[in-house]
Amino acid sequence: MPNDDGPEKEPPAEEAAKLERFKQRLELEKRIAERMKLIRHKILVASGKGGVGKTTAAVNLALALVQAGDSVALLDADIHGPGVPLMLGMADVKPIGGKGGINPTAYDEKLVVMSMAFLVAGEADAVIWRGPLKMAMIDNFLADINWGERDWLVVDTPPGTGDEILSLAQRIKDADGLIMVTTPQVAAVASARKSLTFAVKTKMPVLGVIENMGPFPCPACGHKIELFGGGGGERVAADFGARFLGAVPFDPDVVPESDRGQPVMVARPESATARAWREIAVKVREAVAGSAKETQK
Ligand SMILES: Nc1ncnc2c1ncn2[C@@H]1O[C@H](COP(=O)(O)OP(=O)(O)O)[C@@H](O)[C@H]1O
Ligand SMILES: [Mg+2]
């Protein structure tokens, strides 16, 4: 039965505040879209589990793309554990204000970087933020960083399918897609599956799956050692009909090199590990060229 009092009216102040919020959101979306329009390809590096090598993948893929001649923007969107600055030897960087926003910091001529770590005072300042604040931070990141014209934006994301990646997926509307990183072991593969289900739900295209810390040849005898097993990445890619982008061997030199700001693409560009990242970068290029976004053009 219709209500005689008619629909309940909101108090005018609340309605005005709602309208204001809506306007601000539209303005924000417009600013993000304007910045994103200047970048040809946007990829998110994700994983279900922490410690599988997302940051390693984002950094080395960015460097592989740069070495192939492209200009790259690298965004470290892991608010709780921003790992990009340490890995690139940029831990002391402070952000620089620029025209209409914050300027990213140049790693070299072709690579610019922005990280949450640049904005917090010291390494010990853990960022304890609740969901809405984290989302607001990501929004501001996307709206305010002066990336300029770039061939790629590579986004390193926090593990799992929390607020941050949801925010990123919603805001970067024209992203090419998600790259899932997993290690071969069962637990990592299971969480990669969960994340892929999330991607499918949010309609984020999945560009492919990388298996990191895969089998590696024993330095003494050459026998392949499967520290975490092998083939997990390929299996989960096949399950989701996603492209398998390649496997990166476990490499004991990667940890000390990364800790001193020398990713393998820089420290040992001729190693099997660097070669694996380069081959994956080629596959990423192919995946992007064949993605729904490109074929719609
Ligand atoms: N292929 C590899 N071989 C050996 N160690 C690796 C490899 N890839 C990453 N690591 C190391 O594993 C740790 C976790 O990697 P990281 O990229 O920080 O993971 P995530 O960003 O997913 O948490 C780091 O210490 C990193 O140096
Ligand atoms: Mg990380």
Molecular structure report:
The protein is an alpha/beta fold and 297 residues long. The chain folds into 2 domains: 53-173, P-loop containing nucleotide triphosphate hydrolases (Rossmann fold), CATH 3.40.50.300; 178-297, P-loop containing nucleotide triphosphate hydrolases (Rossmann fold, 3-Layer(aba) Sandwich). Helices cover 43% and strands 20% of the residues. It has 12 helices and 12 strands. It has an 8-stranded mixed β-sheet, with helices on both faces. A two-stranded antiparallel sheet has the order 3-4. Helix 1 crosses helix 5, helix 2 packs across helix 11 and helix 5 packs parallel to helix 6. The longest helix has 26 residues, at 12-37. The protein is globular. Bound molecules: adenosine-5'-diphosphate and magnesium ion. Residues 54-55, 78, 81, 83, 156 line the site of magnesium ion (MG).
